[in-house]
Amino acid sequence: MKHIRNFCIIAHIDHGKSTLADRLIQACGGVTQREFHDQILDSMDIERERGITIKSNTITLSYRTPEGQDYLLNLIDTPGHVDFSHEVRRSLMACDGALIVIDASQGVEAQTVANLYLALEHDLELLPVINKIDLPAADVDRVREEIDADLGLDPFAAIPVSAKTGVGIDDVLAGIVEKLPSPKGDASAPLKALVFDAHFDSYRGVILQCRVMEGTLKIRDTIHLMHSNRDFVVDELGYNQLKLSPKQQLSAGEVGYVVAGVKSVQDIEIGDTITLLEHPATEPIPGYQIARQVVFSSIYPMSTDKYSDLVKALDKLAINDAALTYEKDSSAALGFGFRCGFLGLLHLDVIQERLQREFDIGLVISAPSVKYQLVMKDGTTIDVDNPSYWPDPMKIDSATEPYIKASILTPEQYVGPVMELCREHRSESQTMNYLSAGRVEITSEMPLGEVLFDFYGKLKMLTRGYGSFDYTPIEYRDTDVVKVDILVNKEPVDTLSYLVHRDKARTRALRYCERLAQEIPRHQFKIPIQGVIGGNIIARTTIQPYRKDVTEKLYGGDVTRKKKLLEKQKKGKAKMKQFGRVNIPQKAFVSVLRADKD
Prior knowledge:
Blueprint: E1 4-11, H1 17-27, H2 45-50, E2 57-64, E3 70-77, H3 85-93, E4 97-103, H4 110-121, E5 125-131, H5 140-151, E6 159-160, H6 169-179, E7 192-201, E8 205-214, E9 216-218, E10 222-225, E11 230-233, E12 236-240, E13 244-247, E14 249-251, E15 255-262, E16 273-276, E17 295-301, H7 307-320, E18 325-331, E19 335-342, H8 345-359, E20 363-365, E21 372-376, E22 381-384, E23 396-411, H9 415-424, E24 429-436, E25 439-447, H10 448-451, H11 455-462, E26 468-479, E27 481-488, E28 491-492, E29 498-501, H12 502-519, E30 527-533, E31 536-543, H13 559-579, H14 586-597
Parallel strand pairs: 1-3, 1-4, 4-5, 5-6
Antiparallel strand pairs: 2-3, 7-8, 7-16, 8-15, 9-14, 10-11, 10-16, 12-13, 12-15, 17-19, 17-20, 18-19, 21-22, 21-23, 23-25, 23-26, 24-25, 27-28, 27-29, 27-30, 30-31
């Protein structure tokens, strides 16, 4: 066991985790030059195109030191985006140490600090790596100061590397072997193995990624999952190399895969503890948490005949992604669809793109919302994330919404605009911490619903790309939330209803009304478009009617003839307005909901 190292790579988004993993794999001979491609551990096209890691991946590498000693390195590449911090937490539970990567030009950022605290929660040994030293803007000395001041780690232990050119990779491998601890555990104790990830294979079912903490797991063993309370028989197990490498057993300290005839990721719970049915462990591995969806949105197919395709597509995605939840939903305007729960906006964006790209389905997605907790006047408590189920305001006693603790790292010169941005998004408290020369951390408590739409984009724009943002959910607090309905020709359009704080209701309603007025074609009668809260109109635009010149055929005579024709036209228009229906084109919904996301 002393020649095994289990470690992961953690960092802020876009600091070079995947590139560093590529170089480590190449240095250990884990892939031939012919088979190698960039971001080799990222299996999805979206991951490669956007340069982000969405799903953590693991690989077992064989490394021989210059002295001739062989080591087994189990590397887990983790996502950097705040939406997938749950996945990072699970990966950390399976490790004994971590490489914390810092960009030599950007320095320590918000997610770097957040991941540091996550790693310290699990008592991991940390080895700092300063990446991208080949960039013209790289400042290694400044980054060492930040490692000391912001992270509290030894700045002289940090290894400068360029993952792109391969400089310093041998030093990283030597650091992993010398400075990161070997796993602890008793191979003869009752089996305890942590399921830290899983993915679906069309032929074998669900392949579980496991770290064996205690005991030994062998082929044909009957295993028991302690949280989901289910039993399976192990068909195959082994190491995760670029291809699965079968073995006869996995012992304490080892990381590998297990195939046990599991049909769907939803049949198991990620973070669960595997033990043997015959000799079970007394208690599961501590630290288990369920993934919590924080953003909710309705998804409808662009054409109603694609509904059955959408059902199959969501089923296939959910087989691989246990964090995606969905239930049936319907709309008078858009037909049948699904109400889905996501880990965050990036998760929503990735699922939407995969549905369109992998299954060729055009989608209309409703405005994202968070989950509100309502206390009714009869004393009952309900959770509502869908405007369609918002109860009568007269029956609501009080409402609460989720709050987050946001951590924003920014250069000193942008502090004023960033604090103003936080105030615009209903920030309740702001504290400043000067981390190092010219760098400030602003900590603010604000509603999660305010961060959903445009906060991150505005922050990047205000700070010219140097600001970084991370958040942790804290609690539910009292709020004055209202349901806004959009009326077209005095008829509510259920798909465009939304839940929002009263102070922001008018601005957003006006934006909806103006966008609809641009997209709905003119009719023969005047069409009012209104935003209403209950019976109060808070915003309105009007689509003017076509006007036919009915007096054109008159060639003279008394003015009463002209008045008579105009009066007849007026009555006709009033009758048409009473019975006429407004046809709202599909592109109008898409346009309004996209504008809401921008």
